[in-house]
């Protein structure tokens, strides 16, 4: 046994995970795509503040088109992360909020975004050095 074999970490499958993200047909990939997409992660972050109407979400998420916001909301709703509530008013009012599962995943995304913000100066420094080459 060589040194690399001795220190090799167990695979996700060996740890008891059900999916294999490295496999092209793993259903976990679709969920990962929805959660970590540019707009999906921002939707989750905004909804951590509470329920919002579509127009409020669009204002809070700079640069998102109506089409991309609608697609992201549908995908997150389909995965069980976002709850779409329609109120019987004229015109109908629709509100989006996080489900308990959505709150859990949004908390993880929040941790990642905090890490990025905390380490942004380091990242920008590396970028600047690479641009000077």
TrEMBL record:
Residues covered by the HTH hxlR-type domain: 26-124
Domain of life: Bacteria
Presence of the UniProt keyword 4Fe-4S in the record: no
Coiled coil: none
Alphabetical list of SUPFAM superfamilies matching this protein: Winged helix' DNA-binding domain
Family matches, as InterPro entries: HTH_HxlR, WH-like_DNA-bd_sf, WH_DNA-bd_sf
Keywords, comma-separated and alphabetical: DNA-binding, Transcription, Transcription regulation
UniProt GO MF annotations: DNA binding
Entries under Pfam families matching the protein: HxlR
Name of this chain's protein: Transcriptional regulator, HxlR family
Organism for this UniProt entry: Granulicella tundricola (strain ATCC BAA-1859 / DSM 23138 / MP5ACTX9)
């Amino acid at each position: 046994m060589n040194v690399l074999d001795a220190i090799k970490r167990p695979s996700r499958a060996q740890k008891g995970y059900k999916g294999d993200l490295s496999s092209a047909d793993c259903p976990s990939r679709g969920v990962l795509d929805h959660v970590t997409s540019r707009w999906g992660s921002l939707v989750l972050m905004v909804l951590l503040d509470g329920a919002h109407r579509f127009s409020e979400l669009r204002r809070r998420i700079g640069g998102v088109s109506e089409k991309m916001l609608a697609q992201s909301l549908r995908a997150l709703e389909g995965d069980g992360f976002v709850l779409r509530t329609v109120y019987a008013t004229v015109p109908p009012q629709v509100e989006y909020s996080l489900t308990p599962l959505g709150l859990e995943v949004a908390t993880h995304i929040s941790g990642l975004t905090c890490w990025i913000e905390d380490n942004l100066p380091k990242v920008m420094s590396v970028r600047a050095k690479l641009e000077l080459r």
